[in-house]
Amino acid sequence: MLSAQSRATNNLFLVGPMGSGKTTIGRQLANILRLDFNDSDHEIVRRTGASIPLIFDIEGEEGFRQRESEVIAELTQSSGLVLATGGGAVLREENRRHLRERGVVIYLFASIEQLLRRTSRDRNRPLLQTSDPRAKLEELMQLRDPLYREVADMILYTDDRSVRSVVKEILIRLEEMDSSHKTNTNTVK
Q1: CATH no. for residue 163?
Q2: Measured between alpha carbons, how far is 180 from 187 in angstroms, rounded to an integer?
Q3: Which of 32, 50, 68, 107 could crosslink 148 through cysteines, CB 3.0-4.6 Å?
Q4: pLDDT in tens, 72-87
Q5: What is the pLDDT of residue 119?
Q6: What domain count does the chain have?
Q7: For residue 31, is it within any domain?
Q8: What is the pLDDT of residue 167?
Q9: Bridge-partner residues for 84, per DSSP?
Q10: 94: closest CA among 113, 73, 80?
Q11: What is the phi-psi region of residue 147: left when phi exceeds 0, alpha when psi lies from -120 to 50, beta otherwise?
Q12: pLDDT band for position 2 (50/70/90)?
């Protein structure tokens, strides 16, 4: 397994529920760090030429999750990447393993209220096309939150925060991880 330092200098993977800011924050972070940026959902759409709702309609959630696993397995092998994952990427053990072993995993946490506000007009979220999106988000968070926490190297709360402030906190915490690793390496000598 890679050390925190080498993982921090190579890849950053953003996990969290839909609407937590993974894509927006990831783009900004990649820009500042001069790393490549990718979004696993956008990559699936690019490769298939089909929207996520259409993939869900034709292949079901299981078909989408298989495509997602293939994309994550491939993209996480890159170096110098910031990757925003889909909200359900952590459901499969193989995805969690790839994320843990191949980069620093950052869990962007947001409250149900915040998620509802951020996703209320977005029709590209098939799991929320229901009569009670709040209940669906609560159900998804109950299942996924422990998995996000299991895989995360750091957890950041994004409620009512600007993209800039979240990115700044990530950079500070990455620097702290790097400093801690250097201190531990020097003490071992």
Answers
A1: 3.40.50.300
A2: 11
A3: 107
A4: 999 999 899 999 999 9
A5: 72
A6: 1
A7: yes
A8: 96
A9: 14, 39
A10: 73
A11: alpha
A12: very low
